[in-house]
Amino acid sequence: MTHFPKEFLLGASTAAHQVEGNNTNSDCWAMEHMEHTSYVEPSLDAVDHYNRYEEDIKLMAEAGLNAYRFSLEWARIEPEEGVFSKEAVEHYRSVIRCCRKYGVEPVVTLHHFSSPIWLISKGGWEAETTIDDFARYTRYVIEKLGDEINYICTINEANMGLQITAIAERYKRQMMAQMAKAQETAGKDDADGTVQVGINLQKMMEEQKEAAEENKKVFGVEKVANFTSVRSVESDILVMKAHQAAKEVIRELAPQIQVGLTLSLHDMQAVQAGGEPFAEEEWENEFTHYLPYIQNDDFLGVQNYTRSLFGPEGGMPSPEGAELTQMNYEVYPEALEHVIRKVAENFKGTLLVTENGIATDDDSRRVAFIEKALEGVQNCIQDGIPVKGYFHWSLLDNFEWQKGYSMTFGLIAVDRSTQTRIPKKSLTYLGSFR
């Protein structure tokens, strides 16, 4: 085993809505409780990280980890437009200081999928006003906490909307096929497994009409443009502008903070002749076209879980007999090294692996995944690629969005009947690389 340098950030990640519990002012909470919801269950108390964060941070430190990537919840900090919660921001100050207490570097994400209900009622992530709203929220956070933070990810997986749009279009094409066999394939083809977030695409598509009516009652708009909605080209650029606006605020108020965003990236592989143009197009959509908006960032957060395969007709399924995760991703830890190398061809700043992991109930497979993934990271470092950190997804078994609690990504299991933490062998195994 090769150990990472002392200054290397080795840790794990979480997202506020997935772990904190009772995030009642967010769009996700509202959607979980709708009659025509695509969530299989509501988050409720989640894993109560809001109250148990010190226990969780201490477990990380005792295992040998020295960094923790977590998100602030916009809907807690600004529950009403222009109205900020001192209690919420002080809570996050306590989390940051708890990290310092245990020798863990806090890496803060300002937005990880969930948004305030009031933002969605104004048009959400299709509304130009969101750029200024996000900048105002960022300004408040930096004014209050800027001197406590060294690293900020403005937006998690800024490209997620386009990925969801692509698979939604594919699903529509399948559903339009009239042959029984094609319809059966549409029902069973888990298009969800091609996007790196827990969604229930089939139910979303089937209940659009009913959901639109309920949206008007809950949000005041028929089309809810939350962060993980199907996204227009204009909205894709809007997200980048929101990132840039937040970055300007951070550099104005706290220039010592290293700032970037994170992208969800697949290892694009043309495995049959003729697949190369499709792989190149997907990489352009997923990464390259964002370069003008991120080239002056201090770092880029690389998030990878698997690969995408292409042949002469376009995307291909996982190989016959391939091991799949609970999320229907192919188990392919080698993808991380490939993606880091591909990103480094064009992005010359620091790279942080801000998410990488596996949904499985067999922790021995998680250990094997970590071993291979970290071997790839170390190969990249040896070749001079500036990878400065690795954050495993996730610290805790948590709420995987529309998939609920059935997806187990965590280094720590949680008995939700008692909220008891049960560290897995993978936690100490990851820490042993320091």
How many strand elements?
A: 13
According to CATH, what is the class?
Alpha Beta
The first-to-last residue Cα distance is 10 Å
Q: Percent range for helical residues?
A: 40-55%
Query: What is the number of helical segments per DSSP (H or I, 4+ residues)?
Result: 17
Do you know the CATH topology? TIM Barrel
Summed over residues and divided by their number, the pLDDT gives a mean of 93
CATH architecture: Alpha-Beta Barrel
Number of domains as seen in the coordinates: 1
- Within CATH, the superfamily carries the name Glycosidases
Question: Which key terms come to mind for this protein?
Answer:
434 residues; alpha/beta; TIM Barrel; 15% strand; globular
Characterise the protein shown here.
The protein is an alpha/beta fold and 434 residues long. It has one domain: TIM Barrel (Alpha-Beta Barrel). Helices cover 42% and strands 15% of the residues. The protein is built from 17 helices and 13 strands. The chain has helices at residues 16-19, 27-32, 49-63, 74-77, 86-101, 117-121, 129-145, 160-176, 180-188, 201-206, 208-218, 233-253, 276-286, 291-294, 335-344, 363-382, 425-431, and strands at 9-13, 67-71, 105-111, 151-155, 258-264, 267-270, 299-303, 307-311, 314-316, 350-355, 387-393, 412-415, 420-423. The strands form three sheets. It has an eight-stranded parallel beta barrel with strand order 1-2-3-4-5-7-10-11, surrounded by five helices. Strands 6-8-9 form a three-stranded mixed beta sheet. A hairpin with a 2-residue loop joins β8 (307-311) and β9 (314-316). α3 runs parallel beside α5, α8 (160-176) packs antiparallel against α9 (180-188) and α15 (335-344) packs parallel to α16. The N and C termini lie close together (10 Å).
